[in-house]
Amino acid sequence: MTRPFADRHIGPDADALAHILGAIEVAGLAELAGRVVPAGILDPAGEDGLDVLPPAASEHEVLAELAALAHSNTVATSMIGLGYYDTLTPPVLVRSLLENPAWYTAYTPYQPEISQGRLEALLNFQTMVCDLTGMAVANASMLDEATAAAEAMTLLRRANRGNASHRLLIDTDLFPQTRTVLYTRAEPLGIEIVEADLSAGELPAGEFFGVLSQTPGASGRVADRTAMIAAAHERGALVAVGADLLAMTLIVPPGEQGADVCYGTTQRFGVPLGFGGPHAGYLAVHAKHARQLPGRLVGVSVDADGNTAYRLALQTREQHIRREKATSNICTAQVLLAVVAAMYASYHGADGLRAIARRVHGHAQWLAAGLGGAVVHESFFDTVLARVPGGAEAVVAKAKGRGINLRLVDADHVAIACDEATTDVHVVAVLDCFGAEIPVGPEGAVAHGHPGDPGSHRRPHVENRTSPFLTHPAFTRYHTETAMLRYLRRLSDKDIALDRSMIPLGSCTMKLNAAAEMEPITWPGFARLHPYAPVEDVPGLLRVIADLEGWLAAITGYDRVSLQPNAGSQGEYAGLLAIRRYHLDRGAAHRDTCLIPSSAHGTNAASAAMAGLRVEVVRCRDNGDVDLDDLRAKIADHADRLACIMITYPSTHGVYEHEIAELCALVHDAGGQVYVDGANLNALVGLARPGRFGGDVSHLNLHKTFCIPHGGGGPGVGPVAVREHLARYLPGDPLQAGSHAVSAAEYGSASILPITWAYIRMMGADGLRRATLTAIASANYLARRLDPYFPVLYTGENGMVAHECILDLRELTKRTGVTVDDVAKRLADYGFHAPTMSFPVAGTLMVEPTESEDLAELDAFADAMIAIKAEIDQVAAGVWPAGDNPLRGAPHTAQCLVGEWDHPYSRELAVYPQGVHHPRAKVWPPVRRIDGAYGDRNLVCSCPPIEAYAD
């Protein structure tokens, strides 16, 4: 008989679990639930909300079900456009990157010494974006194009503080989904949006802090933006331009036309359509605005031996420090997809990309030649807008019958977008649907990929780029499959991901991402669907979405769920917007105060500020719980203005607070709403439901609790769940004005939702509950083993922790000078990724083992930490000086063993630490400890020049 999937997902078997439970002095999982979860919120047996879930199925059964759902979708030829284009992902990237756990199970590169592969790939991404846009600095990806535009809007405002205007001018030719997200973001911030046709370069009357446009426009039109940008600058406004990166291989980029900011998406660089995501957006600026960039920025620095090394620079996780004054609430990015896009550019190189662009443009020109006088715009790149008075619906319907989806603009206009997957057959079929004659001659030759004489068919503003791009060796060396295969392997070998080791990160839940869950994401039935495809094309994926909405609502105790937010930060934001709009509709606009405990994740305060709320901090007690006396005082001080409280449960300190129900009641009695951050939901599934113990809204992290992998720092999915009274305020269809959409696609990163669907379907109710309790048991096991060496800072009333524990190193640091950074770097020599450092308490390590790690791995980690404590004792005893010991010298590379060795500890001890007896494959960090201050003082955020590379 096949073992249940839950037995494969959950690490400890029955004997190991018995050992763990014995060590924490608990008789069984049921007793553990009663010991750790407050009785007032613990769901009674049989009332855990999971009864609506289908029974657990095997991996092969679930793959068969998903295959049937994928098959029910229609993979039509998509010529809809609007920022989403079919693309041909090179198979070497599919197999060696998208489907490779060395890449998709990696964590955000906050430990740069064991993340050099990801960081180099992201530096390539930044270089690619800078080269193609003509800008100086790009960040390491955004969540999608619409949110990148929204971040560009707020960046313009921050960077132009000398301009007192609160008005933003946007082009009427923006993608409609971008416009909708801009309006969503602008309203709570008091930004007034004015729309105008900017194609002629003229601006309407009035003052503006910024101007935002895109090229090509939604209509396909390509316009030179130089005059418009100059006019804006003369009026004291800064300018952001959305730029299609494939088009920029042929068109003078906005950076060369004077734009201050560029934004957009890299989707068409090998990233599947995926019904809307995930895709890597981008944001780029000139050097003077580099420190205004939100999100992550990879920079070049040096390690302890003077070697070039990469790290996250400047504002990384800056919302933790600046909280409500942060430039953005973004805490994740789209790293895996950014790496795909960067490697797509490396594989094709400048000449290959230019050839693809010319083929795309050639097909569009062939269409235009056949449509003749029906073509609206003289200048275009890939999208042709055709005027068909009264006949648009008939043309679209006829194309649909031929298996091609066109875009119905209105009753009189049809837009046809060409892309990398467009063929001559598609062009001929579309022209036939219009009743047009098929042209032959030079235009026909272009469609076959032979440009011929460019002067005979050149469109205005197209094929006019003369500046070079992608000249760095990263984009010239890997054009064969052999070279690319080895490059990807060489990079992944520099990193520690879940395929090599436990990643014990508190608050981040790095658990198994099973192969059966991951397999469907590259199937064409899910991957090649346009987000605006006709609804009849996507019944299978809509079934996955509907199932997930229902299952997640039941698991959390809420009434409605939206899967649109494509990151946890966006789920937070959507939830707070729902609360704000609820108060506005009830005539309570004065309710604008958000209470947040001092221990909260920094994105909470940043999200509240973005939602137009004032943040008031509530103190925590010495045991980590929210101080209810201070909460009562804050409620009294802000009673008339109280909008909500944001809490994390279990708390950010890894403890089930026993007063949670009372806390919720206090806020409700004062007229406020309760937002429960779902970051720690891995300690609640099957045990307690926030929608039943007092929450009005929560966001969930599918990339934590529900097995979507972290991908080196993204993708993520952050659904928002609400009680019925807030359901009408959930984000809607981004193609509908006023829908309060928070991302560009209605269902966000839809193509990775089958991962979570498969996880829940294979686990079933019993498996989910057992996973939660095993995670809690494992965390308490590590807490018991490590407490004598590194005191556990917070525990609940019964001396137990939740699914994570905080190890306090502050006294050790005071006595010895050994810091959490030293311990984190030394763990790499032992083959482990470090726990979360200095969050939520500076000078501590937060450990979360998850349910997926078996007893041997738990013990190996505990043994490593205990051995490190013995090394710290040697420093305390004066055997090694505080400035030169195995911890301060960590991590140690193979290269550092060669040549002189003047340290008071041996080479052998440096790289093969003592005290760990579990056999583990040796991890050789590629660089020594990286100098962060040097990197910030000497900010380099794209590939070093070729000369430096040669050196």
Outline:
The protein is 37% helix and 11% strand. By secondary structure, it is α/β, with parallel strands linked by helices.
Counting helices, strands and paired strands, the structural category is: alpha/beta
The coarse silhouette is: globular
Instruction: Count helical runs.
Output: 32
Enumerate the strands of the largest sheet in spatial order, edge to edge or round the barrel: 2-8-7-6-5-3-4
| CATH level-1 class of the domain at 107-343 | Alpha Beta
- Might you state the CATH topology name of the domain at 107-343? Aspartate Aminotransferase, domain 2
Q: How far apart are the first and last residues' alpha carbons, in Å?
A: 60 Å
> Which homologous superfamily in CATH is the superfamily of the domain at 107-343?
Type I PLP-dependent aspartate aminotransferase-like (Major domain)
Sheet of most strands:
7 strands, mixed
- The rounded Rg comes to 28 Å
Q: How many DSSP-defined strands?
A: 24
Mean pLDDT, all residues: 93
The portion of residues assigned to helices is 25-40%
Low-confidence stretches: 441-456
By CATH, the architecture of the domain at 107-343 is named 3-Layer(aba) Sandwich
Proportion of residues in extended strands: 5-15%
Structure report:
With 951 residues, this protein is an alpha/beta fold. Helix content is 37%, strand content 11%. It is built from 32 helices and 24 strands. The strands form 6 sheets. The protein has a 7-stranded mixed β-sheet, sandwiched between helices. It has a 7-stranded mixed β-sheet with strand order 15-21-20-19-18-16-17, with helices on both faces. A 3-stranded antiparallel β-sheet has the order 11-14-13, covered by helices on one side. α25 (690-693) links the parallel β19 (673-678) and β20 (697-700). The longest helix is centred in the middle third of the chain and has 37 residues, at 335-371. The model is unreliable at 441-456 (pLDDT under 50).
